[in-house]
Amino acid sequence: MVLSHTALFVGLLTYAHVFLTFWVGNYRRVTGILFQHDNDEVLLRRIRAHGNFTETVPITLIAMAVAELGGAPSWLLLTGGSALLLGRTAHVVALVRGGTGIGRAIGMLLTFGAMLLFATYGLMIFGEAGVF
Length: 132
Known about the structure:
The protein is mainly α. It contains four helices and no strands. It has helices at residues 4-31, 41-69, 74-96, 102-129.
């Protein structure tokens, strides 16, 4: 079985991850701060945007793959994948703009929504399997 929906979002989010990695690395190069953050507020926000991405995206994509393998409908996969992509984008934009405001909260809500959607579908697959 080809995981075409998951593959789409793995591809898009991998590009986003590469962008964030270069975004942090380039700022480090420009400022000469090669380790830690030296209390540089801009660098700290960039590090956290990158870190939060790496803390949330992989597990969500794994859950998405499980849902797709379990036969999740296309609309569910596209909705959850889009929520994850939009959520991560909103979160980064909010952090760039100072880290406060509604954008960051919306970003996290969309991300958690995608996580919970795919996790719930995975549990439904388990329940339908009649393992117990």
